Amino acid sequence: MTEPFAPFSVPQDRDVLEGFADLALLPTGETPQLRADAARNRTRLLEVAVRLAAERGIANVTMDDIALGAGVGKGTVFRRFGDRTGLLVELLSHHEKQLQAAFLSGPPPLGPGASPVERLYAFGSAVILHEHAHRDFYLEAHIEPGRRRTSPAYHLRLAHVRLLLREARADGDNELTAHLLLGYLETVLVDHLLSVLGMSLERVEAGWRDLVDRYTGERGRCTG
Amino acid sequence: MTEPFAPFSVPQDRDVLEGFADLALLPTGETPQLRADAARNRTRLLEVAVRLAAERGIANVTMDDIALGAGVGKGTVFRRFGDRTGLLVELLSHHEKQLQAAFLSGPPPLGPGASPVERLYAFGSAVILHEHAHRDFYLEAHIEPGRRRTSPAYHLRLAHVRLLLREARADGDNELTAHLLLGYLETVLVDHLLSVLGMSLERVEAGWRDLVDRYTGERGRCTG
DNA sequence: ACCTCAACCGGACCGTGGTCCACTTCGTGT
DNA sequence: ACACGAAGTGGACCACGGTCCGGTTGAGGT
To answer: pLDDT tens digit string along B25-83?
Structure first.
């Protein structure tokens, strides 16, 4: 079985990383060398968190529960993960990395090989499915409004979308467009459309493709 | 001076309300008849909240502060407003109503009279400016992800945008498009673009007009 | 083997949002 | 005037996220 809590490392794709040397958490792939006991506790905490979340839903798991379950003091939890959001992010990072691997270096149409527009289509579907699958975690982690958009994961998605837009020769302000596109894929919005408004997944995906089309000039643009 | 905390009532515009009879908080214009002492406490609480927020920023005002300042028990605050978000929403409702009045029945191009596309342009700018002006409150109130999109204010904006899209003969899934457009105007996104990324207001507004164009076929669409 | 010290640990403690419920007060019908 | 019930009140209480700090431990140097 794969080790979910291994040190951070991301599948490399030179295209996307271009201009992202400043993305501090990404490149070196080095974890700051945890002490043996600390590493052990970290693993136990994450395992306990996963177990409890599976049992009763992450929303019903407190930090004390996790500390207690791991036989560890509360301070240890917060020293390691900073705060609740930090722990959740770490829990998601395994899945997040799978997604990243898929669109950075997986098979087409999500990965390299397909046309940029096809890749954008696939990217939208993948993200929607991905976030929907783990939506309790994402919703729980999103409590902090600002932090999401400053996370490495978000930056990576942003860079990827921006790249594909450029490859697709999208006209306009691609930086802004990338943000807009990711806005459509936000967990809270998608979840609202699907769960609250009861829209079908197909409809939301069609909306995404339509959106991509309108920005990549895939249909009906008069190039004059 | 205008009374900021008067019973709820919204400028009527038959066009927009169309199909919104179910929007329970809107139509009757009736407040559920508060007892005299309760009404007095409500007003005092809101006044105190406004004062404290002005003094030290809403983020540094606790519910206890407000209760204490109004000379009232904590339970009273929560009975009246439900929770912190509820109080903030009520604080915002005054400004919110001004915005609503402006786009429902104010002068063009924001209000009726201009072309739908012009009105959409103006709507975007107005919302961005409005939310930016009160962004501490909106950011504070947004802590709950789901609730925003179920609020009457959001529904109203949604209905308005949907109507303008229809008037502009926008092709496509207008329901979805309306959600997408409002997504671009979300406080957290706009604030991130402006404050964190340092984009200019003009740029963000241009992005909005571009977005509207692409959905109303204002430019470059090949009809036929 | 021992010393040293930064990293780590734990759990008491705190602030804040939110609940609870015995008691009080307002408005209404008679 | 008065009684009565619904609505309102207040503050003790709780849960949970997060901080603090005195004590502990493990890894590298000698």
So the answer is: 333 445 678 888 889 999 999 999 999 999 999 999 999 999 999 999 999 999 999 99
All structural domains of chain A with their residue ranges: 26-82, 83-224
The closest alpha carbon to B121, from B187, B168, B61, belongs to B168
> Class of A83-224 per CATH?
mainly alpha
Residue B3 pLDDT > 60? no
How many CB pairs below 8 Å do chains A and B form together? Answer: 84
Q: Check for a shared fold between B26-82 and B83-224.
A: no
Which residue spans within B67-123 are E strands per DSSP?
none
User: Which residue's C-alpha is at the least distance from the C1' of C20?
Assistant: B75
> Can you say whether the dihedral through the CA atoms of A161, A162, A163, A169 is positive or negative?
positive
Closest CA of chain B from A87, distance in Å: 18
Q: How far apart are the first and last CA of chain A?
A: 56
Task: Identify which of B187, B170, B172, B73 has the alpha carbon closest to the alpha carbon of residue B127.
Answer: B187
User: Are the Cβ atoms of A145 and B188 closer than 8 angstroms?
Assistant: yes
Cis (ω within 30 of 0) for the bond into A109? yes
Q: Where are the beta strands (DSSP E) in chain A?
A: none
DSSP, res B35 = -
B157 pLDDT higher than 90: yes
Long-range contacts made by residues A165-170, C-beta under 8 angstroms, separation at least 24?
A: A165/A116, A165/A120, A165/A215, A165/A216, A167/A116, A168/A115, A168/A116, A168/A117, A168/A120, A168/A216, A168/A218, A169/A216, A169/A217, A170/A215, A170/A216, A170/A217
From chain A, the residues in CB contact with B218 under 8 A are none
The minimal CB distance from A211 to the residues B180, B199, B203 is found for B180
Q: Is A176's CB within 8 Å of B222's CB?
A: no
> What torsion, rounded to 10 degrees, do the Cα atoms A88, A89, A95, A97 define?
-160
Choices 1.10.3470.10, 3.90.180.10, 3.30.565.10, 1.10.10.60: CATH for A26-82: 1.10.10.60
Q: What is the pLDDT of residues A153-205, one digit of tens each?
A: 999 999 999 999 999 999 999 999 999 999 999 999 999 999 999 999 999 99
Cβ distance A180 to B207 less than 8 Å, yes or no, reads: yes
Residue B114 banded pLDDT, cuts 50, 70, 90: very high
Distance A147 CA to D9 C1' (A): 39
Encoded tokens for A42: 């970290």
The whole-model pTM stands at: 0.86
Which has the closest alpha carbon to B214: A200, A119, A218, A161? A218
Tell which strand D nucleotides have any atom below 7 Å from a protein Cβ: 7-13, 15-21, 25-27
